[in-house]
């Protein structure tokens, strides 16, 4: 127990304000965070401003007027970031425009090499990666195991980078053999659009990793790279299942009912294109959710374009890449 700086009343370790005089416990820290956030806003660094305001929000008692105003400010800055993002493709321009934009975005994402390396500076991430590679190597050989783990790492760092853009603190990836990897959020998205965007960032970066593997396969002729690209495409498609906390589930929260039926049609088209039963399963789950689950009155065209683009692009990779389980490898 520590005394209140204003009235001397005892404060609990988790107290945010004094129960006696209602003074804010972290007033000095809040002033410093506000100064940092305002300076970042003045400099045009919206992500840094969001990070400071979100940290300040954690230090304000829930339900107070100050917390409500600050939450509104976070939402406004988040919407400013979304407005500054690339606009959604115009309706009626066809899937090829979406796919071209998606490929450009995926390659641009992977061009952020410094950001990709951030997770590798964390010892728990490195240790869990090595353990996972060791487990998979005993089953598939170390080359395929290492490539697969790296592709999962890229997927997870897509989430981390997108969260950082919104000023949301998160841990580096942790790997669990047999289950993939996960990150823990230290803060949470303030809007459905934030949640959807950060959720779909993982498959987007994963698609970028698959494209890199495709390029290496075409350059070297080594079937290992084709296998890694195909495996990456399948895993990222699985993550587009519109359920629970999977990336697809987070994306679907920003889709209205008509958007969801468009996504179901795209999944059906992906199944016809690739013949992979996973797309049929995702489509059936999507149809159930489109018909029965609550949906927002107005959805996001941008999230729909990203989801449909990912479905068609990943299904296209599955249709085009050789299948090692099929006689003749096609």
List keywords for this structure.
330 residues, 66% helix, mainly alpha, two-stranded antiparallel sheet, two-stranded antiparallel ribbon, single chain
Lay out the secondary structure:
Elements: E1 2-3, E2 10-11, H1 27-42, H2 46-58, H3 65-84, H4 95-110, H5 113-117, H6 123-140, H7 142-165, E3 174-176, E4 180-182, H8 192-220, H9 223-238, H10 247-252, H11 257-274, H12 277-292, H13 301-320
Antiparallel strand pairs: 1-2, 3-4
Helix pairs in contact: 1-2, 2-3, 4-8, 4-13, 6-7, 7-8, 7-9, 8-9, 8-13, 9-13, 11-12, 11-13
Describe the structure.
The chain is globular, with a radius of gyration of 22 Å. The strands form 2 sheets. Strands 1-2 form a two-stranded antiparallel sheet. The protein is mainly α. 66% of the residues lie in helices and 3% in strands.
- Beta content comes to under 5%
Shape: globular
Order of helices and strands: EEHHHHHHHEEHHHHHH
Q: C-alpha Rg, in Å?
A: 22 Å
Q: Please report the distance between the alpha carbons of the first and last residues.
A: 69 Å
Task: Describe this structure in a few short sentences.
By secondary structure, this protein is mainly alpha-helical. It is 66% helix and 3% strand.
């Amino acid at each position: 127990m520590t005394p209140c700086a204003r009235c001397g009343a005892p404060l609990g370790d988790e107290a945010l304000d004094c129960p006696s005089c209602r003074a804010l416990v972290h007033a000095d820290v809040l002033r410093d965070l506000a100064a940092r956030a305002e300076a970042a806003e003045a400099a045009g660094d919206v992500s840094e401003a969001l990070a400071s305001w979100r940290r300040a929000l954690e230090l304000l008692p829930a339900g107070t007027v100050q917390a409500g105003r600050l939450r509104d400010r976070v939402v406004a800055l988040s919407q400013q970031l979304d407005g500054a993002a690339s606009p959604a493709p115009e309706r009626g321009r066809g899937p090829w425009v979406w796919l071209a934009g998606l490929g450009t975005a995926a390659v641009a994402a992977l061009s952020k090499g410094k950001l990709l390396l951030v997770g590798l500076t964390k010892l728990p991430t490195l240790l869990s990666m090595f353990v996972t590679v060791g487990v998979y190597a005993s089953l598939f050989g170390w080359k395929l195991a290492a490539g697969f783990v790296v592709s999962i790492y890229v997927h997870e760092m897509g989430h981390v980078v997108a969260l950082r853009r919104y000023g949301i603190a998160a841990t580096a990836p942790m790997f669990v053999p047999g289950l993939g990897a996960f990150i823990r959020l230290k803060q949470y998205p303030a809007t459905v659009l934030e949640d959807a965007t950060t959720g779909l960032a993982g498959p987007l970066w994963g698609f970028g990793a698959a494209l890199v593997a495709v390029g290496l396969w075409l350059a070297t002729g080594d079937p290992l790279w084709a296998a890694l690209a195909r495996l990456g495409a399948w895993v990222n498609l699985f993550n587009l299942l519109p359920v629970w906390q999977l990336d697809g589930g987070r994306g679907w929260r920003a889709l209205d009912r008509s958007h969801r039926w468009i996504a179901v049609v795209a999944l059906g088209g992906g199944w016809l294109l690739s013949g992979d039963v996973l797309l049929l399963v995702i489509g059936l789950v999507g149809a159930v959710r489109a018909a029965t689950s609550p949906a927002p009155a107005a959805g996001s065209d941008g999230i729909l374009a990203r989801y449909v683009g990912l479905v068609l692009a990943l299904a296209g990779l599955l249709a085009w890449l050789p299948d090692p389980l099929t006689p003749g490898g096609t």
